[in-house]
What we know:
By secondary structure, the chain is of the alpha/beta class. It has two domains: 5-110, CATH 3.30.70.600; 154-305, Rossmann fold (3-Layer(aba) Sandwich), CATH 3.40.50.150. Helices cover 30% and strands 30% of the residues. It has ten helices and 14 strands. The chain has helices at 16-26, 39-47, 54-57, 76-89, 106-109, 155-167, 183-190, 203-215, 246-252, 276-283, and strands at residues 5-12, 32-35, 63-70, 94-98, 117-119, 123-127, 139-143, 173-177, 195-200, 222-226, 237-243, 260-272, 287-295, 298-305. Strands 10-9-8-11-12-14-13 form a seven-stranded mixed β-sheet, sandwiched between helices. Strands 2-3-1-4 form a four-stranded antiparallel β-sheet, covered by helices on one side. Strand 9, helix 8 (203-215) and strand 10 (222-226) form a beta-alpha-beta unit. It is globular, with a radius of gyration of 20 Å. The termini are far apart.
Amino acid sequence: MAQWTEIKVTVDAADIDRAGDIANMVVPYGIYIEDYTGLEEQVQQIAHIDLIDEELLAKDRSKAFIHIYLEPDVNPAEALGFLSERLNAEGISHSLDTSATKEEDWRNNWKKYFNPTPVGEKLLIRPTWRDDYDAGGRAVINLDPGLAFGTGNHETTRLCLQTIEKYLREGDTVLDVGCGSGILAIASLLLGAESAVGVDIDEVAVRTAVENAELNGVSEKFTAIVGDLTQKVSGKYNLVVANIVADAIISLSKDVKSFMTPDSIYIMSGIIDTRGDEVAGVVGEDFDIIERLEDNGWVCLVAKAK
């Protein structure tokens, strides 16, 4: 029988609500949280007794734990990369363990889950260590993402790649906000973009993106920036793509128009479906949403400035 994978996220108890929201993006159908911060008060409110098991009383109250259970066909490496990048972006100190393996061991073990993957009509994502593939005329993205988010297996990444393929025009300039492994910017360049800028708050992700651009022979057209959203970005772009969390998209959308030309396309993903209408409502104040795509609980919005 195929086995599920458990990921255990340890954070400071004060950060558990924000960390829980991020964890729910990995498995929208539910997570299990251990938080013993208000143990005595909770027991008193519920059971109206003072007697609590000694083992429970001995629990570390300064930390809280999130347990995530992945189905056998879900890529644990992608989930670990997603969690690490999003938690770092929120400034949440954390550690990640799997049921049998420490996070650092995944640097050696995760590759078996990452196979050559066709996306859309024109792209094939190829792990650098795999030579057994048939591109079938597709543009090949050579990728070694490490634990940076973005192998193409996650629904949000696939939705972005499919929309980039549809809306990118030859010679476009591209801004990738929250670039992770650099997969979206690199795909844009391979599909005919003139130049691309990738920005990410995670220094490791930016280094990985630079290395992947070199692997694909597009480093001269790719600029990588360590920064929070568009804080350190300048210039105008024909296509802006943001595969980040819902709250970050809402924040980004307040001033992203200043980086766009009148006919620019704005692609947003990383939005869990329960927040799709909320994000669309906020974005719709300044943009016309021209397409909405959904895949397995995730939403991707495509918009143009009003």
